Amino acid sequence: MEFTAQQIAAIINGKIEGNPSASVRSFGKIEEATSGQLAFLANPKYEEFLYTTRASIIIINENQELKETISATLIRVPDAYSAFATLLQTYEKLSAGQLTGIQEPSYICKSARLGEHVFVGAFSYIGENVKVGNNVKIYPHSFIGNNVVIGDNCVLHPGVKIYHDCSLGNRITIHAGTVIGGDGFGFAPQNDGTYKKVPQIGNVLIEDDVEIGSNCSIDRATMGSTIIHAGAKLDNLIQIAHNVEVGYHTVIAAQTGVSGSTKIGNKVMIGGQVGIVGHITIADGSRINAQSGVSKSLKQSNSVVTGSPAYDYTSMLRSQAVFRTLPEMEKRIAELEQLIKQLMAEKESI
User: Fold this and answer.
1) Residue 141 catalytic?
2) Distance between CA atoms of 200 and 206, rounded to whole angstroms?
3) CA 165, CA 282: separation in Å to the nearest integer?
């Protein structure tokens, strides 16, 4: 597909500087783009490539100052990164086309109800009393258990498994291999050292505009619901345990694990490989740095923590500064001890 600068500017509400008829057929990173490609500049770290790139069209921030003449056509927008994301979303929709229909072989129970313009890929299973909204795409090898509800404009990529009684809102994307509604890790210790399984009779509730990466596990609640609130974004390889609640517009990076019954607030940012214990609360706006271990509640909004066990980020930086000086401090202490011994010896000899 080919797009002109004028067409692109209309999609992202940008202002053109240069040739509005300049056209592109694909995308490229600003440091590597060639003629006929579109690039963008949002990070000042890459500003040098603005003057060397061969891209035909570049999206830049409206306040970007030019230090040299640029041959490419520019499109200025308030936020180049967001504008580029909008453009990619439009391109993705056009590229994907309008898949509809039911591929064979697949199995759909007679009591299931599918909306308009639904696509069901081959080797998929849709159980009893399932309700699927309009414009939903269910790619091959997916499993939808009994009584599941799926809202409008959702996308389930290949191999997604949604267990019985779970509920999904609108405009949800779930990537390949993710399991929604598997049993929570509930086992009661017995006197003889064995464990008795605690039935997990709740479900998972996912609200509107959530995206979940590949190979994640979101466990069903023991009772009630495990909840992912609207706008939350989960990376790949994440474990969300039973009865966890993830707040609105919270983002969680890969390989993070959240233990049971923990409540994560709104607009929280959690880095990769974070471990969070169960039955605690994470205040709104908290930021948890990668590889942190959170062992107690974060009660103050917008706090930043790091380390394991995690504690205040600024205090951790101060501690790290001290750690780096420990060898020198050890040497100075040894010298002071030696000096004290000499003074004590001199005092005793008087």
Assistant:
1) no
2) 18
3) 28
DSSP 259-318: -TT-EE-TT-EE-TT-EE-SS-EE-TT-EE-TT-EE-S-B-STT-EEETTTTEEHHHHHH
Backbone angles phi, psi at 305, to 5 degrees: -130, 160
Determine if residue 86 is left, alpha or beta; phi over 0 gives left, psi from -120 to 50 gives alpha, anything else beta: alpha
> Cα(105)–Cα(113) distance, rounded to whole angstroms?
18
Q: Average pLDDT, stretch 245-274?
A: 98
Phi, psi of 96 (to 5 degrees): -70, -25
List beta partners, residue 165.
none
Give the residue among 208, 153, 203 at the shortest CA–CA distance from 180.
Answer: 203
CA distances, 238 to each of 160, 179, 234 (Å)? 14, 11, 7
CA 350 – CA 345 distance, rounded (Å): 9
Q: Which helix (H) or strand (E) holds 24?
A: strand 23-24
pLDDT tens digits, 169-209 = 999 999 999 999 999 999 999 999 999 999 999 999 999 99
Range from 16-20, 67-71, 282-286, 308-312 carrying the lowest mean pLDDT: 308-312
Enumerate the β-bridge partners of residue 207: none
**DSSP class per residue in 208-260:** TT-EE-TT-EEEPPSSSEEEE-TT-EE-SS-EE-TT-EE-TT-EE-TT-EE-T
Q: What are phi and psi of 6, to 5 degrees?
A: -65, -40
- Residue 7 DSSP class: H
**Average pLDDT across the chain, whole number:** 94
pLDDT tens, residue by residue, 93-137? 776 667 889 999 999 999 999 999 999 999 999 999 999 999 999
Q: Among 141, 175, 229, 242, which one carries the catalytic annotation?
A: 242
Integer Cα distance of 176 and 350 in angstroms:
84
What per-residue confidence (pLDDT) applies to 311?
65
